[in-house]
Amino acid sequence: MTSSSMLLLALHAQADAVNADALARRATRKEWRRAWPAGCREYESRKEATGRACSLSAPIAGRDGRDIVELDDVTMTIGSVSRLRELAAAFGKRQARATEPLIPTAQDHAARAALSAVELTTSKHTKRDDERRQQARRKKREVPARRVPTEYRCVKVTTTEPKSADAVEFSCSVSDYSLEAAARSGEGATAGGGGPAAAAAVGSGARQSAEERCRAYAQWKKEYDAHRAPTDEAVGDGFYDYLASQYEPFGELARLRRHMHAAGGETGKARAAIERKATTTYRAISRDVHPDKLPRSVGAECATQLEGMMRAVFDRAEALKYCITKPLRCQLPPPTPIKRTCVAGARDGKDCNKAEL
Predict the structure, then answer these.
(1) pLDDT-based confidence at 22, cuts 50/70/90?
(2) Which of 172, 180, 258, 316 has CA 20 to 30 A from 84's CA?
(3) Nearest Cα to Cα of residue 150 among 170, 180, 128, 127
């Protein structure tokens, strides 16, 4: 064999080794891309994905007809942490029943990594929320309701090379939360017995009894009657200011509307997040104050005497939501500015000088 033939064979062998290494890296990267918790997939529409334990989404641009698991820029939305815990513990249960050692799948690695990232995000979110509530106590203000995460958005991150399924990692953030009534722990209760968020423990998982709701609504009725005009039955804005301080979901909706007005509207992801939050809060309010949802088990007095007030509250909440999600349909007057949301130039600054803390 000539030297040229030997050189040619050596070059071919080297090329084969390089190709084999490239194919191995490509296969490993493909497995990393497909590493998602079991049952997590893309749905045809956002409405269909709502309420799912886990869903995948990706930008339409640049997909070129490829399946979502073949893309790098994919977002995972987790709506059920309990289901994620079940998936993370599934391999351990299979191993306990098996007679020989098992090898974790890419889905097993992904479930464990996602749960770890969600727990870390929850810890950070709880710490920030506790600091927010503690600051309110130091300033002797009403302690806001606790924010309980209900939805997470996660993306894959790369800290090791080459990318492999057994080293998959996620970075998560809280994309939605529910409000836990502060009155459950006795925080911020008023002397009148109504207490902040006394109407219902929205998002807390423990709704109050019909009797407790009626007693709380009775406190609202006193303020409602005090601010209602005797001639045209219209109620003044003072009642809604009172309600915003006593009922956290209504206060949240009012704050979102005030922010949108002060900022002159939002765009992009910020606007989408605010609209999504406004819709979620409006639904929570609807479950509590819609006239058809009034307690009737404690007697006709609660449902009959409070129906007019609850209709006014529900209509106001609906108007606030429209001012946030559909500003062109807003029929409410501009909100009273406060120092944090003063619009520059309003009445030559007179409103800002009179703004409340």
Answers:
(1) low
(2) 180
(3) 180
Q: Which of 332, 311, 308, 337 is CA-nearest to residue 320?
A: 332
Peptide bond into 162 cis (omega under 30): yes
- Print the SS3 string covering the chain: CCHHHHHHHHHHHHHHHHHHHHHHHHHHHHHHHCCCCCCCEECCCHHHHCCCCEEEECCCCCCCCCCHHHCCCCEEEECCHHHHHHHHHHHHHHHHHCCCCCCCCHHHHHHHHHHHHHHHHHHHHHHHHHHHHHHHHHCCCCCCCEEEEEEEEEEEECCCCCCCHHHCEEEEEEEEEEEECHHHHCCCCCCCCCCCCCCCCCCCCCCCCHHHHHHHHHHHHHHHHHHECCCCCCECHHHHHHHHHHCHHHHHHHHHHHHHHHHCCCCHHHHHHHHHHHHHHHHHHHHHHCHHHCCCCCCHHHHHHCHHHHHHHHHHHHHHHHHHHCHHHCCCCCCCCECCCCCCCHHHHHHHHCCEC
Q: Which one, of 114, 90, 112, lies nearest residue 102 by Cα?
A: 90
Residues 199 and 183: their CA atoms lie apart, in Å, by 10
- Please tell me which residue, 295 or 52, carries the higher pLDDT value: 52
CA 208 – CA 199 distance, rounded (Å):
8
Residue 296: CA count within 13 A, CB half-sphere: 7
Asked whether the whole model's pTM tops 0.85, one would answer no
What is the tens place of the pLDDT at every residue in 307-347? 888 888 888 888 888 888 887 778 888 776 544 444 444 44
The amino acid at residue 183 is A
Which amino acid, one-letter code, is at 136? A
Please give the Cα distance from 265 to 260 (Å, whole number): 5
Total residue count of the chain as it appears in this document: 357
CA distances from 252 to 46, 112, 217, 280, 306 (A): 24, 35, 19, 11, 23
Tokens 């995460």 found at: 149
